[in-house]
Amino acid sequence: MILLFPLLSQGDDIKRQLSSLISEISNWQNLAPRSAIQLADRLLTSIELIGEEKTVDILVLLVLLCLYMFNKPQYDYMCSIFDEQRFEINPRVTDLKLSSKQLNLPKYLKEMLFAAEKLDGINQLLKLESYEKASLMNLKINFSDIDLLTYFLSFQSVLNRSDKAIKPGYMHTFGYDGRGAIHDYQLLEAQMTFFGLSSFTANDYLNLIGLTSKFADS
User: Fold this and answer.
1) How far apart are CA 54 and CA 146, in angstroms?
2) Model pTM?
3) What's the half-sphere exposure (Cβ side, CA atoms, 13 Å) at 99?
4) What is the pLDDT of residues 113-144, one digit of tens each?
5) Are 135 and 171 in contact (CB under 8 A)?
6) Distance between CA atoms of 51 and 49, rounded to whole angstroms?
7) Which residues contact 8 (CB under 8 A, 6 or more apart)?
8) How far apart are the first and last CA of the chain?
């Protein structure tokens, strides 16, 4: 089973979410309807090429794929800063508006929290003690402070941390000691890690995009 984070729903719900996300990404980059269809087709091809029991961040994949197909200079810039210690957009180098909230990320992330409670027994899930998992699932937030730049920062942090999450005292890994309100990015990174996002490296995303390009050209 492939998990598409943060679209953790099943059946018609995930189809609806995926269609909505493709539409919003297309609007974000001002794609013509024909180009949006091409993006959707390429995304479906990429999903088919992913090995089983992987967790793939569909938002990251879709953003990178869109830039690769329709804004190659910005794609190359994104690739260059993936290797940096901190994912940081330099406005003097790029006009990529990663900080835009028009993608409505809070909506997808709140739906993710709802779906996360219902998923169990999947190989990608980090094995936590029952009380640790319950503590994670009981944490709710509106994600009002999450925009696309913050999302990519959390994504990079999770990949850099890899499998170094502290299982006893899981939330301490993300700087939360259980007292007071949790920050949006702390809960996002905790959920990303729990669902095995580090099973797919940054290079895996880039290689997958290159592979889909070869399929499209053949």
Assistant:
1) 24
2) 0.91
3) 7
4) 999 988 888 888 888 888 999 999 999 999 98
5) yes
6) 6
7) 14, 112, 115, 116, 119, 195
8) 28
